[in-house]
Amino acid sequence: MGNSSSMLTQYDIEEVQQHCSNAFSQQEIVSLYKRFCQLDRNGGGFVSSEEFLSVPEFAVNPLSQRVLRMVDGLNFKEFVAFLSAFSPRATLQQKIEFIFKVYDSDGNGKVTFNDMLDVLHDLTGQFISENQRKQVLTQVLEEAGYTKESLLVLSDFVKILGSSGLKMEVEVPVD
Amino acid sequence: MSSNQGKLKPSSSELDLDRPNIEDYLPSGASIQEPHGKLRLSDLLDISPILTEAAGAIVDDSFTRCFKSNSPEPWNWNVYLFPLWCFGVVFRYLILFPARAIVLTIGWIIFLSCFIPVHFLLKGNDALRKKLERVLVELICSFFVASWTGVVKYHGPRPSMRPKQVFVANHTSMIDFIILEQMTAFAVIMQKHPGWVGLLQSTILESVGCIWFNRSEAKDREIVAKKLREHSQGADNNPLLIFPEGTCVNNQYSVMFKKGAFELGCTVCPVAIKYNKIFVDAFWNSRKQSFTMHLLQLMTSWAVVCDVWYLEPQNLRPGETAIEFAERVRDIISVRAGLRKVPWDGYLKYSRPSPKHRERKQQSFAESVLRRLEEK
């Protein structure tokens, strides 16, 4: 009885490994491939947002819509590259870049006050009012030496998050 | 993971059966740690815990694991086992399967030739008719069990007919029902199926008092609730059997119990069913397989091995809500059958989780932000 993982040749795996700059071992890629096929119910070669949302643990995540925008319609290679930021082998720089991309919704390399406010809105929902959110954000921005009008770039994020002991690791189950 | 456990505890298979796996009970939002001190910009911008959760759910999640079929361990991996395995395949498909098909056919002939006359000729004598029909339904279920050489061990007292009691069991496949039915003619609450199963439901099983519903019909719920209440009060009705998970789970996990069975004001008798996967995985994945294919799979395997435990009847404790009661009974069943509990509703297969769960996470984040804002 063959299972789906046997369809990946060593050549395929190496190609994927290169694409994610060796963030995952070969075994982890085999596991991720099994998972990818499991999520891709209709077998189209990519996982649709509908299919991602069928995982309840993912659907209840406050940032799921934001993450979805990044993973919707990825093929397996891109899917692994997306997850590589969560590998223990990824550098701090890569992790911060990932977080930056979550904030930078229009992808122009700059994060505005509103971008941050939007994410904060996703995180706190109805439990903090819009005004209070603005107030909190303005206050902490000013304390860190920025203003409401500042446009934060990646190097700002590196400066802000670089020293905070970021822990962003997901273990890929390997059998 | 299981190999790890094996290393730690040599006799873990024994232990695992009796130990609840509460540690797997998902915390909601527990990954958002509780740091102290004044709120800084980095605290607001650091969304890594939540992103990690999201990515973790993409890589692996407890809900999908509940419905994953386990492919059998291959054992045909060497020169002398392989011919043995081939012989087994030939034997199972060419000898065992036809023999079982014949047994099942004989069963149906006997059943129908008795059931039809009983059903139509004994119209005037309801008590006798019901009794005979009950025996016949038990009989045909025994034929079904025989048709896959079911090796079923029943533990505990056999259920008797009494009003105001309802049996609840964990659900792996429609064959749960057949296995329980061969011992006692339960009246079961089940999803209405299409095809030949639906035909059986509306003709034969109706006679033992089974109740059907359509999961998608909202108004069905009230009707079923009413029927349930009426049925459970009747003195000479067959005992009620409910699968409160509402969907088939792969017999390694248990999903949340629907509270309907626990609101009837009846004594709840838990039944735990555990299948041995040595020959065949009894999990019916209704999305991938029709019930006919599932039966064929069972009929071409060596045997279906399972244990059934009739457990201590439980009553609602003072001050306990129906949901807490349901959870308590789920505990009892899960411990006995060695199932891991997950906090998900099985109906999430068909729908999205309610925004409540997300709001809880948002609330805990918001509270921590506000609290730390006040700290100096």
UniProtKB/TrEMBL annotation, chain B:
InterPro entries: LPCAT1-like, Plipid/glycerol_acylTrfase. Residues 165-276 form the Phospholipid/glycerol acyltransferase domain. The keyword Lipid metabolism applies. Belongs to the 1-acyl-sn-glycerol-3-phosphate acyltransferase family. This is Phospholipid/glycerol acyltransferase domain-containing protein. Pathway: Lipid metabolism. It holds the Pfam family Acyltransferase. It comes from Hibiscus sabdariffa. Its main location: membrane.
